[in-house]
Design a protein that fits this description.
By secondary structure, the chain is of the alpha/beta class. It folds into two domains: 219 residues, P-loop containing nucleotide triphosphate hydrolases (Rossmann fold), CATH 3.40.50; 91 residues, no CATH class. The protein has eleven helices and twelve strands. Strand 4 and strand 5 form a beta hairpin. It is globular and about 65 Å long. Bound molecules: adenosine-5'-triphosphate and magnesium ion.
């Protein structure tokens, strides 16, 4: 792998809830290399957001976080809130689905970009304002000079998300994490936002983590995929390998539920995601898996090389080669 920008090892996140400790992330491992776009998929509640909120130091203080998160070799676990503030926006940024809540309604767009620049770089107001307009141009905002003087309510949802991306990349971070950045936008605008992200990735060599439910987006934009289930990685590989011959029954289930030309009907994965206060012993997917055996109840499966993929299934060798 090229230079690793992000290296997550054995990350655990536990929340205390009224029904007991909820282990939302249960030993996540993930690498992201310079200039690489890694797609993270998995059903609702599988721990995608919590994993990266933990890496960003954005979880509520009651969350217990252990393990290792190296960003450019810096160990972030154990950093104070002040140290994390210096990392966020400078070395890594995260964008979310709702751009309006990320922007301040009473400040002009240009000033909000300039503020992010000046919070990490020694720039005069004039320099910051010039750079802010350049950044708005980079993310595809037309007439950036005029638009910089406007307020968030004067922007459409797609344009707001572009502004949020401009703020996120203002200080040329090594890593951009996008958590379902287009869920609130219509389909044509969604594609434009992914194109902006792709442009930034290729132009600035920014590593990108893209969290999405949309496997079509992953197939089109990602280099590698990380599949999460019940707070763990169950399969990782390049987009080509993983879409071509998925090994883990859960990945196969996700792909089988995708609409494809010539396919008569979608095959949803049966059952529901587990309750994370008391997940099944062993492989958490076994309660929904057509191939589960007694051995699957015993140990939590680790990611192991299987063909071109890393797969966390003790029965990977015995599964049918043809899957859908
Ligand atoms: N602040 C919190 N307190 C308690 N439990 C939480 C908290 N945040 C998340 N969780 C729980 O952690 C688990 C993982 O949540 P997470 O938000 O990471 O899921 P996700 O994979 O991002 O899902 P989605 O696709 O719906 O965004 C869920 O069971 C969720 O209810
Ligand atoms: Mg989420």
């Amino acid at each position: 792998m090229k230079n690793k920008v992000l290296e997550i090892r054995n990350l655990h996140v536990t929340f205390d809830t009224p029904s007991g400790p909820l282990e939302a992330v249960r030993g996540v491992d993930l690498d992201v290399a310079e200039g690489e776009l890694v797609g993270v998929v998995g059903e609702s509640g599988s721990g995608k957001s919590v994993t990266f909120l933990a890496a960003m130091g954005l979880l509520p203080s009651m969350a217990r976080v252990t393990g290792s998160v190296l960003l450019e070799g810096e160990q972030l676990i154990g950093y104070t809130p002040k140290q994390m503030r210096s990392v966020r926006g400078r070395l890594m940024s995260m964008i979310f689905q709702d751009p309006l809540s990320a922007l301040n309604p009473v400040h002009r767009i240009g000033a909000q970009v300039a503020e992010m620049l000046q919070s990490h770089q020694h720039l005069t107001n004039k320099q910051a304002n010039i750079r802010a307009v350049e950044l708005l141009d980079i993310v595809g905002i037309p007439q950036p000079e005029e638009r910089a003087r406007q307020f968030p309510h004067e922007f459409s949802g797609g344009m707001r998300q572009r502004v949020v991306i401009a703020i996120a990349i203002a200080n040329s971070p090594k890593l951009l994490i996008a958590d379902e950045p287009t869920t609130a936008l219509d389909v044509t605008v969604q594609a434009q936002i992914f194109e902006v992200i792709e442009r930034i990735q290729s132009h600035f060599k920014t590593a990108v983590v893209l969290i999405t439910h949309d496997l079509g987006v992953i197939a089109r934009f990602a280099d590698r995929v990380d599949v999460m289930y019940a707070g763990r990685n169950v399969e990782q590989g390049t987009v080509d390998n993983l879409f071509e011959h998925p090994s883990h029954p859960y990945t196969r289930g996700l792909l089988a539920s995708l609409p494809r030309p010539g396919k008569a009907r979608l095959l949803p994965i049966r059952g529901f995601p587990p309750n994370m206060v008391a997940p099944p012993t062993g492989c958490a997917f076994r309660t929904r898996c057509d191939f589960a055996e007694v051995i699957c109840e015993e140990n939590i499966p680790e990611l192991q090389p299987f063909g071109d993929l890393l797969t966390a299934c003790v029965r990977a060798n015995e599964l049918p080669k043809v899957w859908a």
